[in-house]
Amino acid sequence: MTEITQLLTALASGQAEARDRLYTLLYPELKRLARSHLAGHAPMTLEPAALIHEVWLKSAGREAALHRAQFFAHASKVMRSVIIDHLRERHADKRGAGAQVTLSTTALEQLAPPDVLKLDDVMQMLARADDRAHQVVEMRFFGGLELEEIAELLGVSVPTIKRDWRKARAFLFDALQT
């Protein structure tokens, strides 16, 4: 069991002092994740530190029920949500902000980088069509988790996750072409 998992377990059992140590351990990885989320976007006023603080605020109390991989999947989802909200706000202020995100899968690389707001709309469509495939994309693409970690978190086999990943990529490819 890693120190992070141990600290999450300690938080779950009510040891509040574990929270500060957990933050110190998680900060470098959260910063890498935040930079990754911000990398494909047009110049933004958001900084990685701001995303990390949002994750920490929105995770207060929740981290106690999670283990390491779940925490990072949740952190990635929160970061993406904060970026989407920020871009929607900017887009409302400045029509045509033109923020871009690049999907890095073989099939999707053939497309021009989609508008991040359109990507969010397509992700919502995927969630309605196939929630597990949506979760796989969230964890794999946005959270950077390995297929084995995702399978463990979702309680299914790795081949099932591979099928969901292929299905989700095909769905995204088709939906982003329109």
Short synopsis of the structure:
Keywords: Sigma factor, Transcription, Transcription regulation. This protein has 178 residues and is mainly α.
Strand content: under 5%
Give the structural class: mainly alpha
Biggest β-sheet strands, sense, barrel: none
Q: CATH fold name of the largest domain, please?
A: Rna Polymerase Sigma Factor, Chain: A
Number of E-type strands: 0
Order of helices and strands: HHHHHHHH
Radius of gyration from CA coordinates: 17 Å
Number of helices: 8
Number of domains: 2
Q: What is the approximate shape? A: flat
**Ends: how far apart?**
46 Å
- Percent range for helical residues? 55-70%
Uncertain segments: 95-114
Which whole number gives the mean pLDDT?
A: 77
Q: Label the CATH architecture of the largest domain.
A: Orthogonal Bundle
User: What is the highest CATH level, the class of the largest domain?
Assistant: Mainly Alpha
Question: Any overview of this molecule?
Answer:
The protein is built from 8 helices and no strands. The protein is mainly α and 178 residues long. The protein folds into 2 domains: 1-98, Rna Polymerase Sigma Factor, Chain: A; 100-178, Arc Repressor Mutant, subunit A (Orthogonal Bundle), CATH 1.10.10.10. The model is unreliable at 95-114 (pLDDT under 50). It holds the Pfam family Sigma70_ECF.
Write the layout of secondary structure elements.
Layout: H1 3-12, H2 18-39, H3 48-59, H4 68-93, H5 116-129, H6 131-142, H7 147-154, H8 158-177
Helix pairs in contact: 1-2, 2-3, 2-4, 3-4, 4-6, 5-6, 5-8, 6-8, 7-8
